[in-house]
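Whether sequence alone determines local backbone shape is best considered at the level of individual chains. When preparing material for the folding task, we compiled for one chain both its residues and its backbone structure tokens. No coordinates are needed to read the tokens, only the vocabulary itself. For completeness, the protein is quoted in full, as a sequence line and a line of structure tokens:
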Amino acid sequence: MTYQAPVRDYVFLLRDVLQLERYANLPAFADAAMDTVEAILEEAGKFTAEVLAPLNAVGDKEGCRWSPDFSVTTPTGFKAAYARLVEGGWPGLGSDPAFGGQGLPHVVNMAFSEMSSSANMAFSMYPGLTHGCYSAILEGGSDEQKALYLPKLASFQWAGTMNLTEPHCGTDLGLLRTKAVPQGDGTYRISGQKIWISGGEQDLTENIVHLVLARIEGAPQGTRGISLFIVPKFLPDADGNPGARNSVKCLGLEEKMGIHGNATCVISHEEATGWLIGEANRGLSIMFVMMNEARLGVGLQGIAQAEAAYQAAAAFAKDRLQGRSLTGPKNADGPADPIIVHPDVRRMLMDARAIVEGGRAFMAWTALHGDLSHASPDEATRQKGRDYMGLMTPVVKAFLTDRGFQVCSDAMQVHGGSGFTEHFPASQYLRDVRIALIYEGTNGVQALDLVGRKLAADGGRGVMSFFAELDAFVEAEQDAAMKPFTAGLAKAKAELQEATLWLMQNGLANPDNAGAASTDYLHLFGLTALAYMWSLQAKASLARISGGDSDPFYDTKLTIGRYYIERVLPETGGRLAKLKTGADLLMKLPAEAF
């Protein structure tokens, strides 16, 4: 099986569903004409399929190698592929032209990111984190810091990392112990150990820019006393080139379940030289720019691995002969029928497509709102974009990774015993994607963030706006062909609204009720969001068909969309029933009973 990038699907989403050219009058979209975008997508598909995908299994089998001199060697072929990535200009798609980027909307850059993650998740994490580092410095850095670091990060000549977690603390960053001592010359001495640092050391770039959370001496305890620092591997010289080696060391690599091709490092800062970004004690607000971008990227990884796993499973199902169709032989001249004739195999493949293609639309729709939150001249549109980005980020991260993992698990099931061996790629997809449910805040933490913070933000303005958008769509789409989609969407929206009201009434009275309901609520939200995405895709497909387009692509879209509405979406009722049971039974047993 050879990975095939979903270029056709992205063209459909950007041209027909999101109608990207509606925004051509905005400067940020001036270079995003569909003929240009389509050419970019075609080349992205070739690059990821031909350069990155062949290295996926290589990275999995070889992994990264740590040496006693604290250096790390990436798998065979990674360095040459990275050089081609940079030479091809792929890193700068969505970066500011002022710093050497191409300035395309993030929604276009996201398409490339999905393709590269599908082709080789471990490899794509190196540039992915670099772009997050770029975004954080762009948000909070001084003019001098931007001028020095952003061109190198935008081109991927230098890499970036995020140094948050420490051996004694994971999500609770208020417990961190890494300290920063001011030196009187504008620099700080950074001392402490960070763990699970993806890409913390590698041989791909000439420098690595670590963004490090630390506490300045005398700062308040907890999250209120955390500052953010730039700590480069090599200190830039007067010309901005890598100079003296900073006292930052990789003490070792984690032995992991998956993503073996990415170096997950233990990093020691031994009075390393660092520079404060933004204000003292306000580091988390800047780091959250990178963390939120990373969370959206992790949701993308869930769909990306699911896409690759689905492709492998579909190819296997069409090739593997076993049993006969329940309605009579379909391969009469052969000893058995291909397993794709069996309804239960079809169920797993259809589930996969319904989630992958609906999830891809959800990511693109969210990314477009992110673009408009900056690019639109209309304040109401910008505000709506900001509201949606805040509200949807935990849903994108947690829902799409949970469902992406399930797709990868089903893909292994389609392979049968072959999937449990390393002769087929199913095992790697399942192992690689599993981390996505954990890092950048576990999915349980994302659910708590959604019900505890995001729903109530600005008086619930974001979720009320979303409900109003769904209501307006259902009311506007009265065509008979749209009825199955709008009816399913209206029912799911009503259940989501009921769940929201239940949380408002019961979560404040007993916070455990909100915690107990959070995961079911997040999934109910994600299921409803994908119902909307499938309704949008159905509308666009019907418009193409009514316009005389006979491409079977559109009929296929309608079939998969109907499958989602009829076979996947009914889960919303069960999620609503579960969350309304509250926390009593969950919290009843004493701790010692477990």
